[in-house]
Design goal:
The chain is α/β, with parallel strands linked by helices. The protein is 47% helix and 13% strand. It has a single domain, classed as 2-enoyl-CoA Hydratase, Chain A, domain 1 (Alpha-Beta Complex). β1, α2 and β2 form a beta-alpha-beta unit.
């Protein structure tokens, strides 16, 4: 047998490929420690990365709050300017246009020493006579306190009923030739379900304390006495509306039998009738009338949190029965529409 073909002879009876168990355990422990350390570092890095990303997101969010005006509240400005207040939407307590929000805007505009004139940009079909009346009173009060700061109304699409109730408190009313102006009247609508109840076999069981407590109940037959009382109330509020218009427009108003009939007219026709003064946009009035073409918006808007709360609250509580009940309540409201 040759030397190359000689088999490997174990030394001291042990194979050369075998290792001691202690050496294998040490290697496993070292590998486990390295892996654990690497995982720990990765987790720490992820935590810090998440933290800094969240911090950056919060920072950008705060910037957006200020940049987009989501924080609500008043405005501040530098330099002479024309103040703008939007009167857009239905006039009602807690609604798009309400006395509290409007007065906050008006006070902010007057409190700014750089305000040289105020424009109310109106686009409203009307609404609550109470809210419109409060706004009208406050405009006239502030005009007495600040006689050197003119207040003008600029009508866009529509200035009807309660919207016009507000406009007549201002010094002049500017319109577009195609604007809708007027509708000087009062209404209170409702529903009657008595015939439907008869057809489906529903009996109305109503108990009251006070003979007129169930006045205008939609599930009871109409009561001539109640109808007469409601009409008298509407006539009274209508007379209040007419008085406000006459006071605001003065000798400019060319009164006719149709002026207070609830009709409405185009902006061009409203000028001829003395319901408005001239044509003009907000930019035109700021530039040519107030002589301050820089416009600063003082319109009060809910902050971001309030908007979210209102939407969440509305979606959480607006069941069908509640929505229906609200419609019945609104049906009995007096409105300037």
């Amino acid at each position: 047998m040759s030397e190359d073909s000689q088999p490997n002879i174990p030394v001291n009876g042990t194979s050369a490929n075998n290792t001691k168990p202690e050496d294998t355990k040490w290697q496993r422990d070292a590998i486990e420690k390295l892996a654990t350390s690497a995982l720990t570092e990765q987790r720490t890095a992820r935590r810090w990365s998440t933290f800094f990303k969240g911090l950056m997101f919060a920072y950008l969010f705060i910037i957006l709050f200020f940049a987009l005006g989501w924080l609500g509240g008043g405005k501040s400005s530098s330099g002479s300017h024309t103040a703008l207040i939007e009167v857009a939407g239905v006039i009602e307590a807690g609604g798009e246009v309400n006395a509290d929000s409007f007065m906050s805007s008006l006070h902010d505009a007057y409190d700014d020493a750089n305000t040289k004139g105020i424009i109310l940009r109106i686009n409203s079909p009307g609404g609550s006579p109470v809210q419109a009346g409060i706004i009208n009173d406050e405009i006239r009060r502030q005009k007495k306190l600040h006689p050197k700061i003119p207040v003008y109304s600029v009508v866009e699409d529509i200035c009807a009923s309660g919207g016009y109730y507000i406009a007549v408190a201002t010094d002049k009313i500017f319109v577009d030739k195609a604007s809708i102006v007027g509708s000087i009247g009062v209404l209170m609508d409702g529903y009657g379900f008595t015939e439907v109840m008869k057809k489906v076999g529903v009996e109305r069981r109503l108990m009251t304390a006070g003979e007129n407590k169930a006045m205008l109940d939609p599930f009871s037959p109409i009561n001539p006495k109640h109808q007469e009382l409601a009409q008298a109330m509407l006539n009274e509020i209508h007379e209040q509306f007419k008085s406000v218009v006459r006071q605001g427009r003065g000798s400019r108003l060319k009164e006719t039998p149709e002026t207070f009939s609830g009709l409405f007219w185009s902006g061009e026709q409203s000028i001829k009738m003395g319901l408005a003064d001239a044509e003009g946009s907000a930019d035109f009035v700021a530039r040519e009338v107030i002589k301050q073409d820089k416009i600063v918006d003082y319109t009060y808007r809910d902050d971001f949190a309030s908007r979210i709360a209102k939407r969440v609250g509305a979606s959480a509580s607006a069941s069908f029965s509640e929505a229906l009940a609200k419609q019945f309540v609104k049906a009995g409201e007096v409105r300037l529409h």
